[in-house]
Amino acid sequence: MLNRYPLWKYLLILIVLIVGVIYALPNLYPADPAVQISSTASGSALDQERLDRLTQALRDEGIDIKSSELNGNSALIRLEEAGQQIPARDIIDQRLGDDYTVALNLADATPDWLAALSATPMKLGLDLQGGIHFLLQVDMQAAIQQRLEANASAVRDTLREERIRYRDTTINDRTITFQFANEQERNAAREVISGQFPDFEYSTPDIQSGAALAMTFTEQAVQDLQDYAVNQNLTTIRNRVNELGVSEPLVQRQGPDRIVVELPGVQDTAAAKRIVGSTANLEFRLEARPDTPEREIETFHFRNNENRTADLMRDVIVTGDHVSSASRSFDQNNRPQVNISLDGTGGSMMNRATRSNIGRNMAVVFIEHKTRTYTVMEDGKQVEKRDTYTKRGIISLATIQSALSNRFRITGLDSSAEAADLALLLRSGSLAAPIYFAQERTIGPSLGAQNINQGIMSVVVGLLLVVLFMLARYKAFGIVANVALGLNLVLLVAAMSMLGATLTLPGIAGIVLTLGMAVDANVLIFERIREEIRAKMPVQQAIHAGFERAFTSIVDANITTLLVAVILFSIGTGPVKGFAVTLSLGILTSMFTAIMVSRALINLTIGGRPLKKIWI
């Protein structure tokens, strides 16, 4: 029989269609608009009683709540309407204060049986699903201060190695000043330092007693540092966003010292803000000995106990900049810890410092650069002011049992979540300079609802016009083409869901274009069948010839379009990539449905029947 598939082909088509339907189904269960509540490190735990009071307060304000759930120190309140997210967030924020982070969220609503099959809905772009927009300001003064402190520490190490005595070190603006007992020691220090630190201009200011050497950052060094700080922060933030698994994020530089971050459709915007905006870093320092001069000592509080302090050396052994990898784990007592691996330089520095200090305590200092925002009255108007400050605290103080190399662990963390966040921050790289939020704008999903509705309407209208045309032109064969077209749309949605592709407005345009192109193959096949029938060929042979002889033309036309889509994806950005993805997948699914599915339907309906005439 000419128009019969072997059994394995029918089974293959059936399996593909069943898988397609299963993985397209989650898109019928859109995410619920929700409000995410997370307690900060210093905040009190969120309990069920407090959550019940919050939900009742929201109901009293006329906000419809779908459900609420508590998970550790965080809670999720699902709402009935997306438009109520922002009012709900404001109400909760007022009642909880600064001890909690309250953010908008889109909570997954996929049924458990689909989730068990790893079936998830398509990810939506910022223009459809909403998300969060950050404008981050890089603190250039802090970048310069950090670099000066690091250089001052390095110079002190160099002077000690050369056995050159110094009295004190001060940092003011862009200048490091070292004080010496006499000019001979100052001149010896200048001769050693100037060759190793070329980014400074050297001078000898007059002081009342002794001699001084001043090191001032050059203008070129400041400019290079600023460019480095922004570019390094850009790379680090991109790494952090990638760790969060955000689809189609935008992270780019804006102006000389700002970075724009757009995170569409994140599941936990509170976590995103905490991770992206965190400027946390680590310092490893030795505990000071009783006979250590006071000028070389700094006193720190412990993060988990403000009443406990320890005196540490000012000089830093190694910082988080030298961390090559970090992962969360648990010790033998099931307490959270972070396993650290240093790069070659960091490992050498750690080994050199610890092998000569066995039996001495070493501290891990956790550093956070934060921003405090407040409002003041100026000229009768409320003006928002922002202060930046640095918070340092010891998270671990342990005795050095043996010389450490490039692998060790950090203990003393409060929770598993804190260990995971710390590992992520260290793994993605530390920031070269502190950043703070110059602007934060939440784009709610209600803004994207109109875009989604219009996009769906365009797909429906396009699909309806194609269906009507195929019915009017090809009669019964048009029904076959329309069924294949509907299955093509299902397979396209399933493929995008399985691959984790992000749907944007240009992506919807690609779907509409795909629907129009999907019937091109059927048009070529059906027109070829018509030609063969007009040439007096028997019906079954004409159907067979139509599919066989149109195949080459179909493949050629689709391959050229696919090449264009691949080029668009490789060189395009954002919206262009979204269009290219849907177009590429649509070409592949349309070839499958137009050639294999439509022929299978024809084979099953009329393939074995002796026909003298067909409606085409």
Automatic annotation (TrEMBL):
CC terms in the record's Gene Ontology section? plasma membrane
Q: One GO molecular-function annotation for this sequence?
A: protein-transporting ATPase activity
**Subcellular location field:** Cell membrane
Q: Where is the Protein export membrane protein SecD/SecF C-terminal domain?
A: 438-602
**In what residue span(s) does the SecDF P1 head subdomain domain sit?**
301-433
Share an example GO biological-process annotation for this protein.
intracellular protein transmembrane transport
Q: Where are the stretches annotated Disordered? A: 326-348
For bias kind Polar residues, which ranges apply? 326-342
Family the UniProt entry places it in: Belongs to the SecD/SecF family. SecD subfamily.
Recorded protein name is: Protein translocase subunit SecD
Gene encoding the protein: secD
